[in-house]
């Protein structure tokens, strides 16, 4: 990859590999497949959306609880890749496992989906932490943004293949059922994810670490406790995490609930898949653009831009009526989705002590994942109480506003001295 080292390129390519899961399983095919199964079983549209939100909340709650301690253990030499491999294997196994759930068993689908979510999000905790091992602070915004950009464009390939199979099955061109077509998409996702993860396993290694010592688990708990006791030394880190907690909640909720929301609005499955494909294509250059603009205007200012766009998205969502409206909404999301995630990752990575990157990315995970509990619950509860999914999306405005206000008090990484390592 021109302009990037072998380590940077290999790290970036994992986004290319794993983003197939993000669009096909988290956002597009699985939610539609699940909604169809739930509807067939007599579950109402608003209730099935709520159950999906609750499932996401449960999975993220589990990972949020174990994230910091696993991250602290992973700071020891050689442990980061080991934990990454464990969660990667869990994710890829149960992503493929979705294809083998009996037709119509919507509850079992949610159980297998929970395990796939744990694997995917868990592996990303350690993948994100590897950014300190593959590049420098000065290049982090560019490398992180290129990762998201490559993820968006790379994921369109298995997505196109999956859409083609589903549409051809729907139009009877392929002599297979819609159920089998969707299950084929799950297998394609697992294969794509595994195949293009090979460079990550071969070329990315842990360079910043703590030397191993006896009773590593016990010592990890002690280091974690020391972090909390000396939290004032990490004020900038935790202030950023608090801001991140609120605004990333809204981002993640819109990503994971968008397809279910579109279904509730009466948008056809085919239109939803096409819209999501277009969103990936548009998000690719905008993610890279955010990285380049951050070098000129700073990452913090570009985060403000992304949050502002999302506030408008939530307000606009309340007034959605047509497929055209949903198209406009999706394109607005595409302009900022990758940028806000990429710059959040690199902004945080610049603040952390490098040898303790996994521990702090464990906190990054726990703040992000606990936030991901609140958003889907808000959407789910509001949808059930009002019978209107648009109200749930509109309620997310407050999360973005709070996040933006707190972010104003976070110093730029360049103005903040390196946080002390924990030993």
UniProtKB/TrEMBL annotation:
Under the heading SUPFAM superfamilies, the entry gives:
MFS general substrate transporter (SSF103473)
**What GO cellular-component annotations does this UniProt entry give?**
plasma membrane
Give the subcellular location.
Cell membrane
The annotated topology with respect to the bilayer is: Multi-pass membrane protein
Name all Major facilitator superfamily (MFS) profile domain ranges: 236-423
Q: Which domain of life is it from?
A: Bacteria
* Gene Ontology terms for molecular function: transmembrane transporter activity
Give the residue spans that cross the bilayer. 12-34, 54-76, 83-101, 107-127, 148-168, 180-201, 236-260, 272-290, 302-320, 326-348, 360-379, 391-410
UniProt KW keywords: Membrane, Transmembrane, Transmembrane helix, Transport
Q: What is this protein called?
A: Membrane protein, putative
Q: Which organism is it from?
A: Mesobacillus selenatarsenatis (strain DSM 18680 / JCM 14380 / FERM P-15431 / SF-1)
